[in-house]
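Human:
Focus on the backbone:
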Amino acid sequence: MLINVTRTGGFAGRERTASLDTEYRSDGPELEWLAERALSGECPADRAPVPDGFRYVVRVDGKLVELRDPYLTDEQRQLITAVLGEGA
């Protein structure tokens, strides 16, 4: 499974993109579960943005979801953190 996350916004307004492929990772099954939960979870992209908040575009095998901070589910936040490799 190919997972891609793009983060925009925040105080500096920088864009950051990262991808990972779960095929050969020891944590692949967990990441795939998080990705499925993230895509099926609440997607509050239509909620009002918060000042300096992040916006995320998550792509998983061709499926796309747009998310905004601070309206992320726990699974969405864990997936974003795992892909970007830092606190979301």
Observations:
- Strands lie at 2-9, 16-21, 54-60, 63-68.
